[in-house]
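Lecture notes, part 5. Sequence design as translation. It can be helpful to think of inverse folding as translation between two languages: the language of shapes and the language of residues. The source text, in structure tokens, appears below.
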């Protein structure tokens, strides 16, 4: 745990946890239109993250405004963590 070790020096330790963002590592998944549609249904904001969706959180954590925040995990996921955890589409029943 870094938080207790660095706090005495006035250093805060926090973490950004991005939700679904298209990256080179997961780009192949975004080629499946049905998977993307299923993902978008589960994200309350209706879309995966865009690169600049992290900007505000990064600026906040780098600023004096976060000086009393430490040991926290900030979820930047369009609301996905509010209850919709399934990343794969539901299996369709066999006819």
């Amino acid at each position: 745990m870094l938080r207790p070790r660095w706090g005495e020096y006035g250093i805060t330790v926090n973490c950004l946890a991005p939700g679904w963002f298209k990256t080179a590592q997961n780009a192949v998944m975004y080629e499946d239109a049905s998977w993307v549609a299923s993902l978008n249904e589960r994200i309350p904001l209706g879309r995966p993250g865009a690169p600049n969706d992290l900007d505000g959180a990064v600026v906040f954590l780098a600023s004096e405004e976060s000086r009393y925040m430490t040991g926290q995990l900030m979820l930047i996921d369009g609301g996905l963590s509010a209850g919709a955890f399934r990343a794969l589409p539901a299996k369709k029943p066999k006819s």
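The translated text above is only one of many valid answers, since several sequences can fold into similar shapes. Residues 30 and 36 are 6 Å apart (CA to CA).
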